[in-house]
Specification:
Blueprint lengths: L22 H58 L3 H24 L3 H22 L4 H19 L3
Helix pairs in contact: 1-2, 1-4, 2-3, 3-4
């Protein structure tokens, strides 16, 4: 055997190889990566929804107030025509949106505006009682409620 003989190739000495990772460890790492990605996506989605939710709540409150004001103005028109039954009905329809708007404003830390809405609700209830008694004073109470609602609506952010 000479050094030029190619029939025998010296075998390289094996280097210390890293132990192979088990399939269970690979599955565990994959699950951990998926969990991290899902949590990150949820957090990103949650943080981007908050401003839109606040804007939607503000628009809903505005719509409730506009609905109530519309009912109060319809009641005033009915009172001008001396249609007390229709006026009382319109004033009755104005009360639920006002109460809901007041509670939404209190939840949104707009206590000053909620107090004005409560005052408008009180005027609406008084006007409704006066309309049921066939009193023309209901028109002045409905007018005060309408003015209060106009003030609140103009104070709300657009």
């Amino acid at each position: 055997m000479s050094a030029d003989d190619l029939t025998t190739i010296p075998t390289p000495t094996p280097a210390t190889a890293a132990p192979a990772m088990s399939s269970l460890a690979k599955v565990g790492i994959a699950v951990a990566i998926v969990v991290v990605v899902v949590v990150a996506a949820w957090a990103y989605g949650r943080s981007s929804v908050l401003p839109e939710r606040a804007a939607a709540d503000a628009m809903r409150t505005r719509a409730l107030l506009l609905e109530s004001r519309t009912q109060v103005l319809d009641a005033q028109l009915s009172l001008y025509a001396a249609n007390f039954g229709s006026a009382a009905q319109h004033l009755e329809y104005a009360k639920p949106p006002l109460a809901e708007a007041s509670s939404a404003m209190r939840d949104g830390d707009q206590d000053e505006l909620a107090t004005k809405v409560d005052a408008a609700l009180q005027q609406v209830m008084t006007a409704r009682d006066l309309a049921a008694k066939l009193s023309l004073d209901a028109n002045s109470k409905a007018g005060e409620a309408s003015k209060l609602l106009a003030d609140v609506i103009s104070a709300l952010p657009r």
